[in-house]
Write the structure tokens for this entry.
Amino acid sequence: MQVIERVAEVRALLDAARCAGRAVGLVPTMGALHDGHASLVERAAGECEVVCATVFVNPLQFGDGEDFSAYPRDLERDALRAEKAGATVVFAPPIDEMYPDGQHGVRTAVAVRELTERLEGAHRPGHFDGVATVVTKLFAIAGPCRAYFGEKDYQQLLVVRQLAHDLSFPVDVIGCATVRERDGLALSSRNAYLGGEEREAAAVLSRALQAGAAAIIAGERSAGAVRALITGIVTAEPLADLEYADVADPGDLTPLGRIDGDVRLLIAARVGPARLIDNLGVRT
């Protein structure tokens, strides 16, 4: 496996692979790889002959007061983890390779309207513009491929699918199931910020989503009642500070009043120093 830092080099490698008839899989990450990332690489390796995992902590998607400088970075560990999962190459560009004029000199941004105006978009202004811009660059660099994203960041997955569609990228965006700990906590690089009691408390997000799903499966059709149920479970945990809990259309994240078909339950909360998100799809 190779670790490449330069855009021209990784682009040439992936172009050569396609010319040789080999399918390319792309797994964009910000590093701090865990079993959830590994599952994306493994899925890509099962479907593509060449798998490029990217490791780039993108400054454009961090807002004021967020954890860009503290975000965990260990490229050597990440490269070994990616290789074990089946990656062919790790693309790990420095910031000045992705943004030659510096992050504050980027004059072009990609914005996906409507999908980004609620939930994470409302609580993290500008976040999705940063995500969409860096993903657009990665798609342009990688070329025709299958790109793998986890459903844990469900709103992000929808945003990436929309931009790939709207901008006519020759990229098949694949959503992959959330990987969880035994107690249900969704794997996240930010889980590393949790201390002992905080780690136990963080499982309340998954419990609340499961309770909401159980209520819907049992016949509850009031989205407001499901929101209230989820909210009550999280607010009862002293170490959790709920930011939002919603019941939404799984296609466009429109908030629902009445449940009549499949839904997506979404939640965000702070537990200690970590801001955690999770979601769960429910079929009716």
